[in-house]
Amino acid sequence: MSKVTSSTLIKFKKEGKKFTALTAYDASFAGAFDNEGVDVLLVGDSLGMVLQGHDDTLPVTVADIAYHTACVKRGISRALLIADMPFMSYSTPEQTMTNAAMLMQAGANMVKVEGGHWLLESVKMLTERGIPVCAHLGLTPQSVHVFGGFKVQGRDAENAQRILDEAKALQAAGAQLLVVECIPPQLAKAITEALTIPVIGIGAGADTDGQILVMHDVLGISSGYIPRFSKNYLKQTGEIRSAIRAYIDEVANGTFPAEEHTFN
Ligand code: KIV
Question: In which compartments does the protein localize (predicted)?
Fold first, then answer.
């Protein structure tokens, strides 16, 4: 099977073929996800919560992400590999270049950054220097303390319009992929239709081009609770590879996410 690139994902979007993304943090799980056909793997800073046991993603460092990116890279051959830029690792363009380069050299194919208008210059600089960018809007977990908790974003017309405008601006600045997290499905649909780059949703309804989940939620082993927008596929199938296959199939045929997983 040929390697998934940003061109592959644009082709999927044009064909209306829904694609699947999942977080991964080590070679073994990543290898299994890759073999089953997950298209995009993200070394998310969610590792701060699901691997390190923190309450949020803020303590994660560039070295943490680089280490796990290198582990995942060694386990896969097909999926596009995205590495998250952690909290405060991209607060200035110069700092962004240095840290993004570290993650690309660790094996990432693309880096992900959370935020809107303030990031445009960095997105442009990264792209011009050969580093593809995945943007992330909506509930951006690194801003949890600004939001006052893990809250759905874009519920009112003004904020929905701001998120839509930021999505368009990030695409214009060079972003090649966009994650939208915990926003109303109508807004996610409007963003997906307005952009030519693929849009991946989490807690954003069924109308985005792709879906992403945290692997620990899919396998039902997150400490605490499984978020409402996620689904425990291991409970349904009883076996890890079948669980991943079920997730891929349900995204492809549009049965996941269902109404119960969205924030209407
Ligand atoms: O860190 C992460 O795992 C993420 C996904 C939930 C999109 O950003």
Answer: Cytoplasm
Q: pTM of the entire structure?
A: 0.97
> How many other C-beta atoms lie within 10 A of the C-beta of residue 211?
27
178, 179, 211, best to mutate for ligand 1 pocket (most atoms within 8 Å of CB): 179
Mean pLDDT of 153-164: 97
Q: What is the pLDDT of residue 224?
A: 65
Work out which ligand 1 atom sits closest to the CA atom of 84: 1
pLDDT in tens, 123-158: 999 999 999 999 999 999 999 999 999 999 999 999
Which architecture, in CATH terms, is 6-261?
A: Alpha-Beta Barrel (3.20)
Looking at residue 1, its pLDDT comes to 77
Cβ-contact 181, 138 below 8 angstroms: yes
221, 200 Cβ separation under 8 angstroms: no
Phi, psi of 5 (to 5 degrees): -125, 180
Which of the residues 36, 166, 181, 250 is marked catalytic?
A: 181
The domain spans of the chain are 6-261
Would you call 181 a catalytic residue per the annotation?
Answer: yes
3-state SS of 131-197?
CCEEEEEECCHHHHHHHCCCCCCCCCHHHHHHHHHHHHHHHHHCCCEEEEECCCHHHHHHHHHHCCC
Mean pLDDT of 53-68: 97
Report the chain's C-alpha Rg in angstroms: 17
